[in-house]
């Protein structure tokens, strides 16, 4: 990891985030936007990573991590999420601030310090957003229901935010939709309308875009659909 520059590590991290499944490709234009650089700079960075055999690039298709690139990206992501946990659990930063501050010093962190931080934090399984820490079980985003797919009456626990966009993460934090929060769906308007949920005793209205960024574990599925399937997509008793 030490032979890579900070921008190159950030690029690997972003490609990892955008290619969770085999066969996924990240567009260089999207990488440029996420990294805050010009398309030309992103393309030049991708070429360097290709020369290092860390990524594959196919014109008009995008970028994907090679086997070596995915292993290295996993190490970069692991360090980032451990540092996030330190900032949140020990220093008291909220999850949005932890994500913003972590890249400022994570790249200069010696491996020994990372290992000791991980042990001192109690070997956590996830970052403050709820994403798994690579090497401690599943590395990608778990297959969980989206909050917006639940029906009125459903109860769930927030598992993670599938967005790493600072404005979206900050908004979800303000709504109380953070990992571990219990939520109940009160109302859902048709045709992509807002979802009304009860969190910590308060009712909140959120749109479809935000509601699809929140992954949840259902506690009570709410009313069954006419086809006998519950809100989390499982077959109801009549369909078994």
What does this protein look like?
The protein is an alpha+beta fold and 240 residues long. It has 2 domains: 138 residues, Arc Repressor Mutant, subunit A (Orthogonal Bundle), CATH 1.10.10.10; 95 residues, SH3 type barrels, CATH 2.30.30. 36% of the residues lie in helices and 17% in strands. The chain is built from 8 helices and 8 strands. Strands 3-8-4-5-6-7 form a 6-stranded antiparallel sheet. A two-stranded antiparallel ribbon has the order 1-2. Strand 5 and strand 6 form a beta hairpin. Helix 1 crosses helix 4. The longest helix has 23 residues. The protein is globular, with a radius of gyration of 20 Å. 35% of the residues are buried. The C terminus is likely disordered.
Sequence-ordered SSE layout with sheet pairings:
Elements: H1 6-18, H2 28-35, H3 39-51, E1 55-58, E2 62-65, H4 67-89, H5 95-101, H6 111-120, E3 145-146, E4 155-161, H7 166-174, E5 182-188, E6 195-199, E7 202-206, H8 208-211, E8 214-220
Antiparallel strand pairs: 1-2, 3-8, 4-5, 4-8, 5-6, 6-7
Helix pairs in contact: 1-4, 2-3, 4-5, 5-7
Helix percent reads: 25-40%
- CATH topology (level 3) name of the largest domain: Arc Repressor Mutant, subunit A
**What is the architecture of the largest domain at the second tier of CATH?**
Orthogonal Bundle
Counted by DSSP, the helix tally is 8
Largest sheet: 6 strands, antiparallel
Radius of gyration equals 20 Å
CATH superfamily of the largest domain: Winged helix-like DNA-binding domain superfamily/Winged helix DNA-binding domain
Amount of beta strand: 15-25%
The rounded distance between the terminal residues' Cα atoms is: 50 Å
Neighbour order of strands in the largest sheet: 3-8-4-5-6-7
